[in-house]
C-alpha cells in the first residue's frame, strides 16, 4: 500500500487527564492507557506497519510522586508478564530502549525475558521507551564512540551507537492529548518524521484515531530538502 509509514512513534499522553475527567485516580488512567496498547499494535500490524515505538516512561517521569512511579513500574511488569505469550502468538517482537539499568531489577528481568521470548517474531517490532531521554541517549552514544577511539564520527557511525540501532527512523510521530512538544523523545531519530498531534487522550485512542493519523500522513509530501518536482519524478521511477 502506498504511503503507509514503516515506523510509527507514539507519545502516549493524557492518562492523568483522562482519569481526572472520569473521576478516577491517575493510576487507573495509566491502567486504561496500557489496555489500549495491544489493540493498537494489532491494528498497526494489520495495516502493514513494521515498527511501532511507544513512549511509556521518560527519564523526567522519575520526578513524579513516588506512588505514581511505583504504580507505573507495577503496571509495566504486569503488562509484560500478562501480554508476552500473546506477543509470541501474534508475531510481535518486543524491544526496550532507554536507561534500562535504572529500572527495578525485577522489571529488567521481565524485559530481558520478553525480548528473549519474542526474538524470532517478525510481523511487527514493538519498541517501548522506558526511563528514556533523548539527550542522554545521544550522550551515551557519544561516550561509546569515544571509548572506541572514533575520531571522525559520521551520522551512520553515530546512529549505530543509539538504542535504536538497526531500526529505521520513525516516519510518523503521533502525540495524543493536545500537547505540542517532543518531551525529549527520539531527538536524533525524529529528524525527518512527519508530526501529527491529536486532542484525543491516550486511553481513548482507538483504531479510528490511528487511521486519522495514517490518513494525514498519506497526504504529506516528504521532500527531504528537495523540491516537489524531484519527489514526483522519484515516485515515477
Ligand atoms: C502519559 O500520561 C503517561 C506517562 C507519562 C507515564 P500522563 O500521566 O502524562 O497524563 P497527563 O499528561 O497527566 O494527562
Ligand atoms: C511524555 O509525557 C512522556 C510519556 C508519554 C511517557 P509527559 O506527560 O511526561 O510530558 P510532559 O512532561 O508534559 O512534556
Ligand atoms: Mg502528560
Q: What does this protein look like?
A:
The protein has 237 residues and is α/β, with parallel strands linked by helices. It has one domain (7-236): Decaprenyl diphosphate synthase-like (Undecaprenyl pyrophosphate synthetase, 3-Layer(aba) Sandwich). Helix content is 44%, strand content 15%. The protein contains eight helices and six strands, in the order E-H-H-E-H-E-H-E-H-H-E-E-H-H. The chain has helices spanning 15-21, 26-46, 66-89, 105-117, 134-147, 155-159, 207-218, 228-236; strands spanning 7-11, 51-58, 92-97, 124-132, 172-175, 194-197. A six-stranded parallel sheet has the order 3-4-2-1-5-6, with helices on both faces. Helix 4 links the parallel strand 3 and strand 4 (124-132). The two termini are 17 Å apart. One 3-methylbut-3-enyl trihydrogen diphosphate is lined by residues 11-13, 55-58, 60-61, 179, 181, 183.
The general outline is globular
Q: State the end-to-end CA separation.
A: 17 Å
**How many separate domains?**
1
Helical/strand content category? alpha/beta
Short description:
The protein is an alpha/beta fold and 237 residues long. The protein has helices spanning 15-21, 26-46, 66-89, 105-117, 134-147, 155-159, 207-218, 228-236; strands at residues 7-11, 51-58, 92-97, 124-132, 172-175, 194-197.
Describe how the helices and strands are arranged.
Blueprint: E1 7-11, H1 15-21, H2 26-46, E2 51-58, H3 66-89, E3 92-97, H4 105-117, E4 124-132, H5 134-147, H6 155-159, E5 172-175, E6 194-197, H7 207-218, H8 228-236
Parallel strand pairs: 1-2, 1-5, 2-4, 3-4, 5-6
Helix pairs in contact: 1-2, 2-3, 3-4
The protein binds 3-methylbut-3-enyl trihydrogen diphosphate (2 copies) and magnesium ion.
Amino acid at each position: 500500500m502506498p504511503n503507509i509509514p514503516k515506523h510509527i512513534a507514539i507519545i502516549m499522553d493524557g492518562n492523568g487527564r483522562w482519569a481526572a475527567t472520569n473521576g478516577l485516580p491517575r493510576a487507573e488512567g495509566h491502567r486504561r492507557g496500557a489496555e489500549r496498547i495491544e489493540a493498537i499494535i494489532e491494528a498497526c500490524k494489520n495495516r502493514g506497519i513494521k515498527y511501532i515505538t511507544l513512549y511509556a516512561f521518560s527519564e523526567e517521569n522519575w520526578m513524579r510522586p513516588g506512588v505514581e512511579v511505583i504504580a507505573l513500574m507495577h503496571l509495566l511488569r504486569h503488562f509484560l508478564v500478562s501480554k508476552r505469550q500473546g506477543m509470541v502468538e501474534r508475531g510481535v517482537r518486543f524491544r526496550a530502549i532507554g536507561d534500562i539499568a535504572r529500572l527495578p531489577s525485577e522489571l529488567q528481568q521481565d524485559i530481558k525475558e520478553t525480548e528473549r521470548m519474542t526474538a524470532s517474531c517478525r510481523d511487527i517490532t514493538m519498541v517501548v521507551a522506558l526511563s528514556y531521554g533523548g539527550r542522554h541517549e545521544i550522550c551515551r552514544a557519544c561516550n561509546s564512540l569515544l571509548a572506541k577511539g572514533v575520531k571522525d564520527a559520521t551520522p551512520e557511525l553515530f546512529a549505530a551507537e543509539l538504542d535504536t540501532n538497526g531500526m529505521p527512523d520513525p516516519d510518523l510521530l503521533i502525540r495524543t492529548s493536545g500537547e505540542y512538544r517532543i518531551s525529549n523523545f527520539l531527538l536524533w531519530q525524529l529528524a525527518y518524521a512527519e508530526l501529527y498531534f491529536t486532542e484525543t487522550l491516550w486511553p481513548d485512542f482507538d483504531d479510528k484515531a490511528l487511521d486519522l493519523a495514517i490518513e494525514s500522513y498519506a497526504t504529506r509530501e516528504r521532500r527531504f530538502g528537495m523540491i516537489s518536482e524531484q519527489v514526483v519524478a522519484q515516485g515515477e521511477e
